[in-house]
Amino acid sequence: MTHPTSNLLAKRSRWNAETILILLGIAALALAPLHFYPVFLMKVMCFALFACAFNLLLGYAGILSFGHAAFFGGAAYFTAHAVKEWGLTPELGILVGVFGAAVLGLVIGFLAIRRQGIYSTMITLALSQMFFFFCLQAPFTHGEDGIQGIPRGHLFGLIDLKEPLHMYFFVLSVFLLGMLAIWRIVNSPFGMILKSIRENESRAISLGYSVTRYKLGAFVMSAALAGLAGGLKAMVFQFATLTDVSWQMSGEVVLMTLLGGIGTLVGPVFGAALVTGLGNYFATSELPVTLLTGIIFMVCVLIFRRGIVGELYATRLGRRVEQSRKD
């Protein structure tokens, strides 16, 4: 029989190891601007947060949305308009974008969750395309020109975000807060119920859970976090365009999540870094980036069916670490 004290010490050592890894990751991100282009790193973090928000819906609730660009790009437009036309500070402008994305998520999610499978997915795609054409015609979006020249302003009226490093650490802080929020949702009772709905919806209904309400809650949370990423991206690049709300953007976030690993917390981060890195470093080469991304995607589908991080978790070492964490 194992002594309780030894179990407590083992758990503390595991938590200490996880804490050390997290702190090392944060330190690496803090030092990354010394070796990499800050704007590229901010772009990676924005898309990583976007992919993690999408994974919250697909990986944990089992709902495939092919219209997440509406939340990402919609929040970019809302934030851009609020900051440029209304003169709001950056943090308030991003909150306007998050609120707008949450409202869009409530409307689209309310209609989409009434159906299942491919029918639900096609509803999200159709409604996302409707929002795309709205952005194309609406006066405040400026059509194909988009909203350009968005001022970064001063964070809380004190910190000048025109300084690249100030902007980088602001994006890093929001990214870490977003990841913390996703981790908390996934590991809460709400997240456990979402997983049970994903695995066996009929059984969850028989246990008395309001499946529709939980699905809608997951949809709105995912949309709000995607909006947070979209608002950040608008502030980083100082423009919001139709590309952010196009169906290609929805397909790109699906690709990022599949490459990294569905249902894993950090998998979409690796997927976003891979896709964004390929687009950045091969943009000026003669090799078509889309062809290279497609080849990598085919290899992952054929060999790494769970995604890069998902396959790592499926190894003997990964299963042992996961089991020890649960114990």
Structural class given helices, strands, pairing?
A: mainly alpha
Low-confidence stretches: none
Proportion of residues in extended strands: under 5%
Give the CA-CA distance, first to last residue. Answer: 16 Å
Portion of residues in helices? over 70%
Radius of gyration: 20 Å
Strand order of the largest sheet: 1-4
Q: How many β strands by DSSP?
A: 4
Name the overall outline. Answer: globular
Q: Number of helical runs?
A: 14
For the biggest sheet, the summary is: 2 strands, antiparallel
Overall pLDDT, averaged? 84
Order of helices and strands: HHHHHEEEHHHHEHHHHH
Element layout with pairings:
Elements: H1 4-31, H2 38-61, H3 69-84, H4 90-112, H5 118-137, E1 147-148, E2 154-155, E3 159-160, H6 164-186, H7 189-199, H8 201-206, H9 211-237, E4 239-240, H10 247-260, H11 267-281, H12 289-302, H13 308-314, H14 316-326
Antiparallel strand pairs: 1-4, 2-3
Helix pairs in contact: 2-6, 2-9, 2-10, 2-11, 3-4, 3-9, 4-5, 4-9, 6-9, 7-9, 10-11
